[in-house]
Amino acid sequence: MATIENLPSPSAERPIGFGRLKRKEDARFIRGQGTYLDDIRLPGMVHGAILRSPYAHARVVSIDTSRALAHPNVAAVVTAKDLETLGLAWMPTISYDTQAVLAGDKVRFQGQEVAFVIATDEYSANDALQLIDVEYEPLPAIVNARKALDPDAPLIRDDKAGQHDNLASPTWEAGDEEATNRAFAEADTVVSRDIIYPRCHPAPLETCGIIADFNPQTGQLNIWNGNQAPHAHRTVYAHVAGLAEHMIRIRCSDIGGGFGNKVPVYPGYVCAIAGSIVAGVPVKWIENRTENLVSTGFARDYVMRAEMCSKDGKITGLRVDVIADHGAFDSTAQPTKFPAGFFHIVCGSYDLQASHVKVKAVYTNKAPGGVAYRCSFRITEAVYLVERMVDALALKMKADPIDLRMRSFIAPGQFPYETTTGWTYDSGNYAETMKVAMDIAGYDDLRREQREKRERGELMGIGVAFFTEGVGAGPRKHMDILGLAMNDGADLRVHPSGKAVVSISAQTQGQGHETTFAQIVAEELGIPPEDIEVRQGDTDKSPYGLGTYGSRSTPVSGAAVAVVSRKVRDKARLIAATMLETRPEDLAWEKGRWYVKGDPEKGAMIEDIAVRAYGGEPMPEGMEGGLDAQVIYDPPNLTYPYGAYIAVVDVDPDTAQVTVRRFIAVDDCGVRINPMIVDGQIHGGLAEGIGIALMELLSFDAEGNCLNSSFMDYLIPTALECPDFELGETVTPCPHHPLGAKGVGESPNVGSPPAIVNAVIDALYETHGVDHIDMPCTPARVWAAMQGRPEPPQ
Amino acid sequence: MTINVSMTVNGAQVSHDIEPRMLLVHFVRETLELTGTHWGCDTSNCGACVVRIDGQPVKSCTILAAMCDGHEVATVESLEVEGQLDPIQMGFHERHALQCGFCTPGMLMTTRALLDENPDPTDHEIRVAISGAICRCTGYKNIVSAVRWAAEHEAATANREG
C-alpha cells in the first residue's frame, strides 16, 4: 500500500493542481506543428470560392454561370436556384430570423454570398468567380441605424411576410420606468449623452472556413471546422440539411483565435456541405481576409441615448434608449429572446435607486451579426455606456471620477445584490479592488503630473473604468440558444494506470484548455496534470455542451470538470474503503489519496484505487467496475467578475495622436486556476480594447460600401500601440461555482475601452472643452473634437 | 503554363514545376507541405506568413515562389535542430508568449532574425521588430519578455562556451 512518501511532489514550476503551469499545447505550436483547418487535406478534396455582391442593396436580375462552368478546372457552380431544390436556400439564424445562404431575390449587404464555385484548386476557383455574370438592379441602401425607421426608408426584408418596416425586434425593456422618473425628479444633477459603440470586428488571425465530406454510401457527413460551439453547430446542420444528427461528426482541430467570430454558422459552411453532398467529394472553403471582415459576425453597432442622475453626491438613476443595428439578417448572438447581457450589466457596479432601459433592433444594408466580440451578449456596450456616463456625471459635478464611483458602489454587505434591472450579482468588494488599482497607478502622483504637464501645454489624461460582468451563460431556467440549454458536459475516465482522459464540450481557440482543465482534475484528484489528457472539439468523442464564448469555459465547463472529478473521487472512496477494510466515512482525503482517519499512514492512492477498479478483486457491494463518471453541469447563476482599470494617455497637441502610455488592470475573477494563463488572457483583451478605443472600425459610405475591408484599413494594434500592461488582482471567490472561479477572458476587452475614452476626454476637457467623443479615437476624430467639431463614426 | 523553380528550403534542395503566379506561402504550404507557415491577411499586414529568405525575414504572401529561385528559404520547421529547440522557441514557451499559436511561426521567424542581427535588443527594439506582425491573443507583453528570455539564455550559453 502506498505511503505518503510516494505522493507526487508539487513545485511552483510543476504544480499538481492550480498554479503557473506552463502550457501543454505549446509543444506543437512552437514547432509549427499545430493543425489548423487549412493544414488538413483529404484525398480527392476540391476547393470552394464565393462570389459576393458588390452592392449593399440590389435586385438580382439574372445570374449566368455558363462561362464559369466552361472553365476546365471547375466542377460545379451553385446558386440560390440549386439550393432551393435542396431546401437550403435559406437558413435559420441564432436569433430566430432567417438568412439567405445564397442570394436569390435580392442582395441586402455588400459582400453577401451570391454563388459558390467548386474547382480542383483554390486559384482556379477564384479565377472562375470572374467568369460569373450577374446583372443587378441597384436599390437605395440604409446604412445608418437612426434612418432605418424613417417612413421613406427602403424595405430591406421584403422576403418576410408581414414585414412592413425595418424593425428587427420588438422594443425590449427592463427596469422600472416610473421609479426611474421619480429618481430623476428628485435628483440634483442630471447628464445626458448620445453615445455610439461603433461596429467593429473580432478578426481572429485565422479566418473562418470548413471542410465538408459527405459519404453517399454511408450517409455520414464529416465536417472539419474551427468553431466555438461544435455540438450546437451539429444540431443546426441536422435541422438545416435534414441530415441525421448522429451521422454528422464535427471536428475542430486547432483554432487560430475566435473571439466570438467563430460562433455562428455562415452561408459558406452550408454551401460547402451542399457542395459535398452534390459532388460526392470533400469540399474545402476558407474565406480570405476581406470576406472575413465584410461578411462574418461583426460586433457592437449600438446607437445609445442615456441619462444619468445623482443626488447628494451619489449616482441614483439611469435611463437608456438604444437602437441596435443588426444588419440585413438578425443573427445577433443572444442566449434569450432579449439582449440579456446589456440588461444584466447596464446598472454597472452601482447601488442605483432605479433604472429603465429600452432596446430595439433594426435592419440595415450591412453584414448580419451582432456577435459577442470577447463579450457576453452586449455586456460590453452596457459597460461602456455606464462607465462613460459616470464620467460625464463626474464632470458636471466637478467630482473626481474615482470618488464618485467609490461613493456609489454596491457595498460588500449587499451581495447577493439584485440590480434594478432584476439580475443577481453574486459577490464583490469593489472599493478594495479600486484601491489596489489606485495604488499601482500612483493615482495622486498621476494627477500631480497631469497638472504640471498642463502648465507646459502637454495633454495627458487619466481614465478610469470600473466594470462588473455577468459571464458563464447560463442557467437553464433563464437561458437557451435555439432552445438548447446552455449547459456543458464532462466525461472523466481514470485508466488502470492511474492516468486519465477528460472530455469536455468547451472548445479552445487558444485559451489553453488542455492545460487548465488538466489542472482542475489534478487539483481534485492529485493526478499530475501531465498524466491527464483533455479531449475536446470532436462531437463523436466529447459530451454535449454549448461551447466556448462569453467567458463560459471556466464558469460552466470548468465547473463540470470539477464536479465530475469529485464524482470519481467519491467512487474512489468507496473502493478505497473496501481495499482498506474500513467504512467510507472513516476515510479522509488529501490530494492524491484516501487515508484512514487517525491512521494517516494507512491509505490508498488514486492510482492504486484505479488498479483495483479495473482488476479482478471484488468491488464494493453493488458497484460497477471502472473509475469514471460523467456530468452535465447547469450553472445556478451567472458569475460576476469585475475589475478596476486605469488608463494613462498622452495626446499630441499637434497631431491629436493618442498614445496609451500606461494601463493598469486589476481584475477580480475569483479563484485563478492558472494565473499565468489568466494574465495572458488579460493582456490579449486589453490589446483588443485599445484597438476598439483607438483604431478598429467597420465604417460604410452612403451606398453601403464597407470602407475597412482589409487589414490596410481595419487597423489592429501592434506591439507599438500597446504599453507594458500593469496587472493586479483581488480574489473574491464565486459563492456558487465549485472552484470559486468566475471567468476572465472577456473582462479586459469589456473594461478597457471606457477607461481609454475617459482618459482622452480627461486630457482634453479642461483645455479644449471636449466632454464627449465617440470611438475609435483616431487622430482625425480627436483633432475634430479639439476644434469643437465632434464627428460621429458613421 | 508552369515554370520550374529550384531553391533551398530548410537546407534541402527542392525543385518543382509550378504556376508562375504561385505565391511563396502557397508553394511552402501546398507544394512542400510545410504547414507551419500560416496565412492571415493577403495584404502583408499580419506577418503570420513570415519566412526567411537568405536570412532576411520576408512575408511569404507577398512574394512569388518563382522570385525565390536559387535562394535559400527557411521556415519555422527549421528552428528545431536534431531535437534541440531554438532558444526563441523555448522563450515563447517559458514566458507564455503564445495562445492560439497562429501568429507564432511568423513571430518566431521575425524575432529569430532580430536576435541574429541584434543579440541584446531593448524592449522597444523588440516592439519595433515585431510591429509588422499581428498577434490577436497575447497583447505582445509576453512576446517581448520571451525574446528577452532567449537573448539572455543565448548570452549565458555564449559566456559558458566562450
Mind sketching the topology for me?
The complex is a heterodimer of chains A (794) and B (162).
Chain A: H1 26-29, E1 46-52, E2 58-64, H2 66-69, E3 74-78, H3 80-86, E4 90-92, E5 98-100, E6 106-107, E7 113-119, H4 122-129, E8 133-138, E9 172-175, H5 177-186, E10 189-200, E11 209-215, E12 220-224, H6 230-241, E13 248-251, H7 267-279, E14 283-286, H8 289-295, E15 298-311, E16 314-325, H9 340-345, E17 354-362, E18 369-371, H10 379-397, H11 401-408, E19 417-418, E20 424-425, H12 430-441, H13 443-455, E21 459-468, E22 480-481, E23 484-485, E24 488-494, E25 500-504, H14 513-525, E26 532-535, H15 553-580, E27 587-590, E28 593-596, E29 599-605, H16 606-614, E30 627-633, E31 642-651, E32 658-668, H17 675-694, E33 726-729, H18 747-768, H19 779-786
Parallel strand pairs in A: 1-14, 12-13, 15-18, 16-17, 25-26, 32-33
Antiparallel strand pairs in A: 1-7, 2-6, 2-8, 3-7, 4-5, 9-17, 10-15, 11-12, 11-14, 15-16, 19-20, 21-31, 22-23, 24-25, 24-30, 27-28, 28-29, 31-32
Helix pairs in contact in A: 10-18, 12-13, 14-15, 15-16, 17-18
Chain B: E1 3-9, E2 12-18, H1 24-31, E3 50-53, E4 56-59, E5 72-74, H2 87-94, H3 104-117, H4 123-129, H5 141-161
Parallel strand pairs in B: 1-5
Antiparallel strand pairs in B: 1-2, 3-4, 3-5
Helix pairs in contact in B: 2-5
